């Protein structure tokens, strides 16, 4: 018997369903971004070199995380579709296997990232005054990747079954704790020595670890839509193989989105510390202001997955149309506000660095009026992933980063009079083109014919046999 929540998602008003999902997600994402904003706020008090150290580290750590994230995408998509199909037993099985896979994957990637951090930073060509801080920040971040993975999968699986309030409460508590720990670790207090830039990463490590442990405990108690048991973590080779091939395009997509900013960092770093710091602050602000669209796209993903699992492709299409339209409107308004108040936004992070304020404000004003296109792209790509059409999302990412943005940034900054401004102009040009292409591809309708539903049924049979053999049912 479907719950009232499932009836709303599969049969109720689409606007109401999107709001019920999106509002807690948006609030949670606002708080989640608080980690980076808190780091930027306190690190900004150390000067431009410290800000640049954090800015150059984020794309590298994101790239490593993205390499293993495809397994999580596969798990979240399948669990949501099983929920739409009314298969709670398989929701639980997929969740346990997903948590197992991301834990192992993150441990391997974190160790590799820790060892390779020095050559990665040298490859990026960071300035000597930035290197030491970036290395400490990056290595601590790699140590904490396992906690980031585990909690990210907890959030994704919770969203997949439509439970968004519990992650919100956890994030609220850990962000408050992070804000308190950041100045303590960065500047020191009493017997605790100052750690500088690395202190920001240590604070995040502590709070993310706490969040991950809480997530596992909630799954094991089984009160919020997913019930895990220790027996469920026994490796299921058939499911792992299925998740690998389903999630591989997702890993390539997210790795592309991580590699793109890292490649841009090569270009940005070549223009000096001031440009790198302005770019880093502008990127942080971009992440913050796109949160409403991110929340809507994640709500779209849940509803599309569940409705595809229930065999209702037309409703999934209507969900995407409404989400993309709302995202376009919201981010267009936010972009206009950012244009008007760009210098004030940047000075919040570096109040005593007028050159960085000028550079960051220029970056924001060049890209912000095209932000509506980001909202459209996010929702359409989320629908592609949620329907199981991971290849479409992967192709859009590859074209966006390697065919459009990076070549544009290189040509405009190195071969025109725009110089550093050319880097910034690559953002709105790419955003507009990719949004148009995404909408056209979605309108063509081929995503509705994705065979994931049938493949999921085959996977369900395999998983059900495993469950029966283990005596879980």
Distance between the termini: 18 Å
Residue share in β-strands = under 5%
Radius of gyration: 22 Å
Topology as a string of helices (H) and strands (E): HHHHHHHHHHHHHHHHHH
Overall 3D shape: globular
DSSP summary, beta strand count: 0
* Low-pLDDT stretches: 455-473
Number of helical segments with 4 or more residues: 18
Please give the domain count.
Answer: 1
Let me know the largest β-sheet. none
Question: Helix content range of the residues, please?
Answer: over 70%
Look at the structure and give the mean pLDDT. 83
Structural class by SSE content? mainly alpha
Note down, in words, how this protein is organized.
It is a single chain. The protein is mainly α and 473 residues long. The chain has one domain. The chain has 18 helices and no strands. It has helices at residues 4-11, 14-43, 48-84, 88-124, 128-143, 145-160, 165-187, 197-221, 237-269, 273-289, 291-309, 313-340, 342-347, 354-367, 371-386, 390-414, 420-444, 452-470. The radius of gyration is 22 Å and the shape is globular.
